Amino acid sequence: MLSNHFQNGVETVRHAWSRIPNSEESQFVDDAVGLVRKSDGSSVESLDYEVIENFAYREEQARRGKLYVSYLLVVKWLFALLIGIGTGLAAVFINLSVENFAGWKFSLTFSIIQKSYIAGFLLYALINLVLVFSSVYIVTQFAPAAAGSGIPEIKGYLNGVDIHGILLLRTLIGKIFGSIGSVGGGLALGKEGPLVHTGACIASLLGQGGSTKYHINSRWFQVFRSDRDRRDLVTCGCAAGVAAAFRAPVGGVLFALEEVTSWWRSQLMWRVFFTSAIVAVVVRTAMGWCKNGNCGHFGSGGFIIWDISDGQEDYSFAELLPMAIIGVIGGLLGALFNQLTLYISSWRRNHLHKKGSRVKIIEACLVSLLTSIISFCLPLLRECSPCPESDPTSGIECPRPPGMYGNYVNFFCSSDKEYNDLATIFFNTQDDAIRNLFSAKTIHEYSSQSLLTFLVMFYSLAVLTFGTAVPAGQFVPGIMIGSTYGRLVGMFVVKYYKKLNIEEGTYALLGAASFLGGSMRMTVSLCVIMVEITNNLKLLPLIMLVLLISKAVGDAFNEGLYEEQARLRGIPLLESRPKYEMRNMTAKEACGSGRVISLPRVVKVSDVVSILRSNKHNGFPVIDHTRSGESLVIGLVLRSHLLVILQSKVDFQHSPLLSDPRGGDRSIRHDSHEFAKPVSSKGICIDDIHLSPDDLEMYIDLAPFLNPSPYIVPEDMSLTKVYNLFRQLGLRHLFVVPRPSRVLGLITRKDLMIEDTENVNTLELQSTSVRNRHHNKRPTTRNSDVERPLLNGLLVGSE
Amino acid sequence: MLSNHFQNGVETVRHAWSRIPNSEESQFVDDAVGLVRKSDGSSVESLDYEVIENFAYREEQARRGKLYVSYLLVVKWLFALLIGIGTGLAAVFINLSVENFAGWKFSLTFSIIQKSYIAGFLLYALINLVLVFSSVYIVTQFAPAAAGSGIPEIKGYLNGVDIHGILLLRTLIGKIFGSIGSVGGGLALGKEGPLVHTGACIASLLGQGGSTKYHINSRWFQVFRSDRDRRDLVTCGCAAGVAAAFRAPVGGVLFALEEVTSWWRSQLMWRVFFTSAIVAVVVRTAMGWCKNGNCGHFGSGGFIIWDISDGQEDYSFAELLPMAIIGVIGGLLGALFNQLTLYISSWRRNHLHKKGSRVKIIEACLVSLLTSIISFCLPLLRECSPCPESDPTSGIECPRPPGMYGNYVNFFCSSDKEYNDLATIFFNTQDDAIRNLFSAKTIHEYSSQSLLTFLVMFYSLAVLTFGTAVPAGQFVPGIMIGSTYGRLVGMFVVKYYKKLNIEEGTYALLGAASFLGGSMRMTVSLCVIMVEITNNLKLLPLIMLVLLISKAVGDAFNEGLYEEQARLRGIPLLESRPKYEMRNMTAKEACGSGRVISLPRVVKVSDVVSILRSNKHNGFPVIDHTRSGESLVIGLVLRSHLLVILQSKVDFQHSPLLSDPRGGDRSIRHDSHEFAKPVSSKGICIDDIHLSPDDLEMYIDLAPFLNPSPYIVPEDMSLTKVYNLFRQLGLRHLFVVPRPSRVLGLITRKDLMIEDTENVNTLELQSTSVRNRHHNKRPTTRNSDVERPLLNGLLVGSE
To answer: Which of A633, A601, A598, A597 is nearest to A701 (CA)?
Structure first.
C-alpha cells in the first residue's frame, strides 16, 4: 500500500509543477549574478545535462500535449527570428559606430596634416588613445568577460563547460562598446570574433528572458529551461554573429556546425539557417538605408564584402606552384602566430594581469600609442611613387580624392600626382586596407619593400595586441597579414610568369585564406566564408587547395588558435575523438582510486551537510536495500538539488522511515524552476545554508529527487568506448558498475522500430501479464515514469 | 598460470593478424555476390558496428603506428579525390549522352514535321520507346537494384541497414545506362537522384577495391574494412553525386549532412567538401572542353544551371503574400504527391511487380507511349500565339531558330512569326523547359490555360512514372511542377500588382523550391542548392520563406518522400529522435518476452549448430561462471563469427576445458579478414556448413571471439534514454541487465581530460598497485585489451 501512496504522491508533485509554469520562484533563479559553485576553486563548471532528465525534462514531458508542442515550436522560431534581428542590429550599430569614428578620425587628421604633420600625428594618436582607453576601461571595470574574441569560451559553453559571466548582459554591453573602441582606435584586431560572442549573448539573454539583475526581464520569454534549449539558442546566436560579421549566412551555419558546436541535431540546422538569413536581411536593409547618406561616414566600408568578381577567371597549372607556396607560408606563419600568442598570453596571465586592472589599462594604452606611432611614422619614411597612368574604365583614381576611401593614398608626398603605397595599407582602416590589397587591376601598386615592412610590423603588432584586455577578433588581422604575403607572392608571379591575366589581388585573397587556415584550422566554413565575402564562386577550388595545405602544415606544429587559447584558459574541451592512450585503460582505471561517496535513500540532514562539506563531488549515487538485504543502486542525486532541498527545508521529515506523501502536502512544496540550472547566476553554496540543530536531526527521503537511471558501464570496458558514450550523449556523470551477472534481454534495431499508432496495442499484447498488474493502481499512465518498477520493488521490500 | 598462457595466446593471435594485412583470405570475403543472410527471410540486414570493436578495430589499432596513420590519411584523401573524379566523369558521361540522344531526337522530329506531323510523331514515339525499353531492360534483366532514385536505400545504408545489391558494380552500370535511357526517352523523371546513387556506388566500389565477381579488383585499394570507413566513403559519394547533378559543391555537402547521413563527424566534413569541389572542377573542365563543339548536341543544356541573375532585384512587402501562397500550394501539392506515389508504389509492389520482369517492361513502355502522346499531341491542340515585339537587347529570338534550344518554340503554327507556348514547355527537354519557365524578361509568354494544362498533365505523368522499373529522380519533375504553378501565380501578380520590376521567372523559381520543400522536406541543403543553381544569392530569404511554409504545410499531412518510400520498401530507418511513446516504456519492456539465448564460454559444436538453427538472432551473450559459482556475462558473440568458426573448424578442441593456446598454433589460424563483414557478398548461412558427427562432438572456446564489453542498460531505464544511446552510438546490440548492486566509481569530465603525454605517467602513478601486478606478465602493453581483468579473474577462478 505504501508504494501505491508514494507513487501517487510523486504523480501529484509532478502534476503540481506542471500547473504552475511561471510561478514566483522562477525569478529566484536568475536573481544573483556570480560564479557557479565557487567552492570548486575554479570558475569552470560543467553543464549538467542530467537535470534535463530529472526535473525540467519530466515536467516538460508532463506538460507536453499536442498544443504545448506546437506552442514551443512557434516560440522557438520566434526566438530564432528575434536573435537574428538582434544580432543584425548589433552588428549594424557596431559597424556604423566604428566607421564613423574612424572616418571622422582620418578626415580630421588629413585636414590637419595639410598644415602640420606633428599636430596631425598628435591628434591621430590622441583619438586612438581615447577610443582604446574607453574600450579597455569598459572591459576592465564593467565586463571583464568581454575581453578577447570570446570564441573559445562559447566553444567551451557549447561543449558543456560553463564559464563565469560569458553570457551576461554586462558582457554584451562591454563587448559591443568595447569593440567599437578597440576597432575604431585602430588596434591590430577585428570585430568579427566579438560579434560571434555578441550573438551568443543576445541569444542567451533572450532565452532567459532578459537579465534579472537589471530588472529587465519578462516571464513571457522564460520558456527555455533545459540546457539543451539554451545551448541551441546560443548556437543560433553564434551563426548569427558570423553571418552578421561577414554577411555570409551559409558560412555562419557552417561555422556554427564545424567550429563551435559539439552536439548537432539536424532539426537545429534549419533554425540556425533561418537566423542567419534573418541577419542577412537585416544587414542588407540597413545598408540600403545607409546608401541614402543617413549614416555619416558609413559608406562603402564597414561590412566586409571584398567583392573580387573582377578577379582572374582562370589559371594555368604553373600557377599552382606559387599557390601551394602560399599555403605553406600560411601554415608556417599561422602556426607561429598561435605559438607566439600562446606564450605571450600565458606570460600576461601569469605576470602582468595579476597586478590588477590598472596594469591592463596602461598596457592597452601603450599598445595603442605604439600602433599609432608605427602606422603614422613608418609611411613617413617611405618615398612616394608617381601615380600610374590613369585608366578611366577601372574607376580608380590616383591619388584618391581627399576625404574618400580608396587606393593610392597621398600621404607626405611632394607632388599631387604621387601616392604613398605604405600609407595606402597602413594609414587606413583595416577594411579599406584589405580592399586595397585585394583589388584587381592595380598591378605594381605596392613595392615589395613596403609589403614586407608592413607584414613584419603588422604581424608583430597583431601578436602584441592579442591578449590585451579589449574585445579582439583575429579574422581581420589574419586577413591583413595573409593578403600581404599573398600579394607579395602574386607580385613575383606577375614578374616571372609574364602572363597578362594574373591578378595580384587573387593571390592576396589566397594568402588571406592560407593564414586563417594555418592559424584557426577551420576548413569548410572558412572556405565558404571566403567565397561569400569575395562573391566569387570560381575561386573555390583554389581556396580549398590553399586551405588544405596550410591546415596540414599548421597541424604539424600545434593545435588551432581557439583550442590553444581554450586550453590556456583552462576550459576542458572534450574532443570528438577519444585519445589514443584511452585504448589501454578501463573505465575503472579512469575514475581513479577516489572513494565513491554514496547516500542511502533516507538520509539524515546532518549527514548530507557533512558529506557536501567534505568533498566537491557534484553527483552522488543513492543506494537502497531490499528486504533481503541486497543493495541496489536506485539513482543519482545532484549536489545542486541537495542544496535546494536543504535550503527550502520543506522536505525534512522527523522519522527515518519512508515518507508518506498523503501526510504532508508535498505536492505544492516544489516548483521545478527551483531545480533548474541558473544560467548567469551563482548557485547556492553549502556555506550559504543555515540549518538549526533541530533541522540537522531530521531526515530527507531522496527518492523524488533522483535521476533514477543514469547511464552505466561495466568496470572493465575500454575507456575509448566509455569516452564515446560520454561524449556523444553529452553526459556529466557515468556510473562504473561491476560486470552484470545475467542478461535480461537484448535490444536490437527491431525492438526500437515502434510504429506511432500500433505500438501501444502491440505492447499491451506483448506484456499483458506485467502491465495488467500495474494497471489498476495508476489512474493516469501519462506520468508513469521509469523508476516505477524499481521503486515498487523497493517499497514492497521495506513496507 | 593458465590465465597468463591464455593472455599470451590472445596477444599472439592479434600480433599474427597484424603481420598479414593483405593475405589471401581477404579475397574470400568479396567472392560471392548475393543476399546477406538470406535465412532471415528478408533482404534487409542491419550493419554490424560491433565488428569494429571485435576484430577489425583491434587489428587496426594494433597496426596503427604513426606511419600507418599517416598512410591511412593519405589513402583517405586519395579516395576522396578518386570518388570526385569518378563521379564527375560519370555525370559528364550521363549528361553528354542524354543531351545527344534528346537533341538528336528533337532535331530529327522537327525536320520531319516540316513534311508530316504523323510521321514526326511516329518517329518521336519510337525513339522514346526504344530508349525507355533499353533502360527498363537493363534494369530488370541486369540490375534490379538500379530502379528508382536510390536515395532511400542509400539513406538506409548510412543509417545502418544493409540492402541487397545497392552498391554493386552492376547496379552502377545499370544506373548509368538506365538513366540515359529513361531521361533521354523523355519520361517525367530526372537524373539527379540516380546520380547520387551513382556516386555512392562508385565510392563503395573504390572502397572495396573493385568488384571481385568481375575480377576487377585490386588489393591496393582494400584498406577500408571497417563499416565506419565504408560509410564515410559512401557519404563522400552522395555529396559528390549532388555536386555533380546540380554543380553545387556546398549544396552537396549539406545534402549529405542533412538528408542522408545518420552519423556525422566534423573530420569527415572537410573530406566530403573536398570531394564535392573536385567534382565541380571536373564538370567545369568538361564543360569548357564541350564549349569548343566537341560534344555534339551538348551545348548550353545538360548540367543544371538556370542562371537567373537577371531576375528581379528587390521585392515589395505586398509580394510576400503571393509568395506565401506559393509556399502553401507547394506544401499541399507536395504532400499529395507523396501520398499518391505511396499508394501507387504500394499497389505496384503488391500486384503488378509480383508478376515478373515482363510486366515491368510492358508497363514502362506503356508509360513511355503515353508520355509521347501527351507531350506531342497536346501542343497540337493549342493555338499558336503571335510573337511579341522582339527586343534585341535580351537576346531572345522568337521563334527560336530551328535546331536550337530556347524559348518560343514554333510548333504546328500557321505563321512563321508565331510560337506555341505549350510546346515550349512540353515538347522540349526538361532542362530547357525549366530554363524557359525560369526565364526573365519574357512576361506574357505563357497563357494561364497552357500552364494549367501542363501542370495537371505533367503532375499526373510524374505520379504515374514514379515507381516504374527505371532509374528515376524526383528533382527535375518537382522543379517542373513547381515552376509551372509558380509562374502561374507570378502571372497573376504581374496582372494585379501592376509593377514593372516583377519577373514571372522569379516566381517560377520560388514555386520550384516550394514543391521540392513540400515533397522532400529538405531545408538548408535544398535552399543552398537552389541558390547555387540559380546563381543568385539575393533570393535566399525568399526561398527560405517559401520553404519554411511549404515544409510546415507538408509536415501536417505526411512524412517526406524519401522517408515514405523507405518505409514502403521496409527499410527500418532509426530516426534521430525517439518516439513519443517510448517515454512510458522501459528497456525491459522493449525487448519483449522473448527468451534470451546465451552461450557458455566453452560450448559444444552441436549445441552451437542447434542454437543457430533454432532462431534468427544475430548476437548471443556469453556467460561464464566463477569458481564460487557466480555467473558473469563475459561478452557478446555474433552469429556471423560463429559461422566462420564453424566453417573453418580450426578452433575445435576435444575437451570441454579451456583451451591451452600453447598447444595449438592458434596464432596463425585466423585472419581478421575472415571475420570482416562482406560488403557485397552473401554471408555464410548455417545450412551451408557441413559438419561431420565427429566435429559435432567437439568444443569451442569462445573467449577470443567475443566483443568483451557491449554497452549495457539497466532493465528499468526509460526507453527514450535507451534509444538515444542506441542511435547516437550506432549500436546493433544492447544488453539489458539487472540494476547494479553497487557503484564502483563515477566518471566525470575531469576523468576524461587526459593530457596526451602526461597521462601514461600519471596513470602509472595513480594505480601503481594494480598495474605493477600485471607488468611482468605482459611484454607489450600495447595490445592489452579490455577483457583482461575479467578474463584473468575468470581463469583464475576455473583453474
So the answer is: A601
